[in-house]
Design brief:
The protein is mainly α. It has 3 domains: 177 residues, Orthogonal Bundle (Cytochrome Bc1 Complex, Chain D, domain 2), CATH 1.10.760; 43 residues, no CATH class; 33 residues. It is 43% helix and 4% strand. The chain is built from 7 helices and 4 strands. A two-stranded antiparallel sheet has the order 1-2. Strands 3-4 form a two-stranded antiparallel ribbon. The protein is globular, with a radius of gyration of 28 Å.
Length: 270
């Protein structure tokens, strides 16, 4: 091949490669833009947040946790499991032992085998884990357009922005902006990645009646159930913080004793 023709061919390849690279980068940028969502607004949490390192003395609001459990029970549990939580754990929310037994007894669970080798159902007891709404993941997916709803036991710690993200998604349903295509069966959500979520808006003003008489606005329900899910994801948060405070106090006292001992040992050294 003559030199001029070779240079011309190289130029053509470079131009074609540049066009292809530009197109690929544009596609990637568009995909990335579609997969992102604005950070949800920060909320005030009585417990300070499960990922907060500056809330050593903050605790969960038991009344809010009980209301949040009510929201989960009456709304979320129809689709979402919480496989890592047992009914007896609800005593940490302020429920009495008898109340926990009554809550558990509302559900039928499978047990066995019995003496004849057969499985059977019985009322749940406090040591049982929360009953899942579906027998398995495939059944859950089949009932939800091919996508199984996620288990909520650790959902707060499994998402960026933690509590704020869960609260943001629950309150982030909006009418889609002009020109934004929402596929059939989807809903526009301001804080969900990609903005299209398969879950229909789960909360409505006065959709439930709180046992303690608190007005059940969407914001209140979202705040309470998010606090409950934060507790479920980090049930030992308060004990861990108390231990951290005790360790810090011990180290401060130990440092003081060591300093005093050092002063005494070296007092006569000139």
């Amino acid at each position: 091949m003559h030199r001029p023709k070779m240079i011309s061919s190289l130029k053509s390849l470079l131009v074609a490669g540049g066009i292809a690279l530009t197109g690929a980068m544009g596609a990637l940028a568009a995909t990335a833009e579609a997969a992102t969502a604005p950070a949800p607004p920060e909320q005030e949490w009585h417990h300070g947040g499960v990922n907060s390192f500056t809330s050593m003395f903050k605790t969960f609001d038991r009344a809010s946790l009980q209301r949040g459990f009510q929201v989960y029970k009456e709304v979320c549990s129809a689709c979402h499991s919480m496989n890592l939580v047992a009914y007896r754990n609800l005593e940490a929310l302020g429920f009495s032992e008898e109340e926990v037994k009554a809550i558990a007894a509302q559900y039928e669970v499978t047990d066995g085998p019995d003496d004849t080798g057969e499985m059977f159902t019985r009322p749940a007891i406090p040591s049982d884990h929360f009953k899942a709404p579906f027998p398995n993941a495939k059944a859950a997916a089949a009932a939800n357009n091919g996508k199984a709803p996620p288990d909520l036991s650790l959902i707060v710690k499994a998402r960026e922005h933690f509590e704020d993200y869960v609260y943001g998604v629950l309150t982030g349903y909006r009418d889609a902006p002009e020109g934004f295509n929402v596929p059939e069966g989807g809903y526009y959500n301001e804080y969900f990645p990609g903005h299209v979520i398969a879950m229909a808006p789960p909360l409505y003003d006065d959709g439930i009646t709180y046992a303690d008489g608190t007005p059940a606005t969407i914001a209140q329900q979202a705040h309470d159930v998010t606090a409950f899910l934060a507790w479920a994801a980090e049930p030992h948060l308060e004990a861990r913080r108390q231990m951290g405070v005790a360790v810090i106090m011990f180290l401060i006292i130990l440092a003081g004793l060591l300093y005093a001992a050092k002063r005494r040992v070296w007092a006569d050294v000139h």
